[in-house]
Amino acid sequence: MGHFSKFIPAGSKFLKTKTLINFHRWAFVTPGNRVVIQFMNRDSSAVATVILLESGATEILQVSLRDPTFPTATTPLHVSVLNRDYDRVHHLLTKEGVHPCITDQTGCSALNHAALLGQMRICELLITAGANVNAAAHDGSTPLHKAAQGGRADVVQFLLRQGANLNAENKRGETAYTIASHRNHMQVAVLLYQIPVAKREDNT
């Protein structure tokens, strides 16, 4: 464990996982204020998250450990979304009390990732749980930007119905329409272009 051993209280039990080359390092605080270090990667994340949560972990320290190889800290909710694990996301939100608006080190919410991946059911679940449809990451990207980036027309339509800001710009001055156009996602670009046209016609 090297210098990370100083974060582990005496008597703590180590979580046994496969030897990993690339992994994330997380720190959890249990109700008894004990710190548990979690090592995981894509292959073992779901199992490791379940073990820690069922052990009583209630809060993640997103800035406690910084790994230069993985500068973007994440959370169990983000990992579950990235793994497209609807059941785990549902469990975290409804049984573990995880806040749907929690962000990673880039300011991305779980909804941002779900929108990019086109995970409609997870997007619906997050919105129902209270996720902010217009929450912007540090680069100004909203879930609508991410859905446009991924060419997810169905998610774009869903987010707009939920009140997503069509004209929101990221820090490069790009709207969702701009991103869809530049990435040649023409179905999404046409959809986003037609909405303001339809609104103008409704007002005439």
From TrEMBL:
The keyword Secreted does not apply. Keywords: ANK repeat, Repeat. InterPro entries: Ank_Repeat/CDKN_Inhibitor, Ankyrin_rpt, Ankyrin_rpt-contain_sf, GH30_C. Residues 19-54 form the Glycosyl hydrolase family 30 beta sandwich domain. ANK repeats lie at residues 106-138, 139-171. PANTHER family: ANK_REP_REGION DOMAIN-CONTAINING PROTEIN (PTHR24201). This is Glycosyl hydrolase family 30 beta sandwich domain-containing protein.
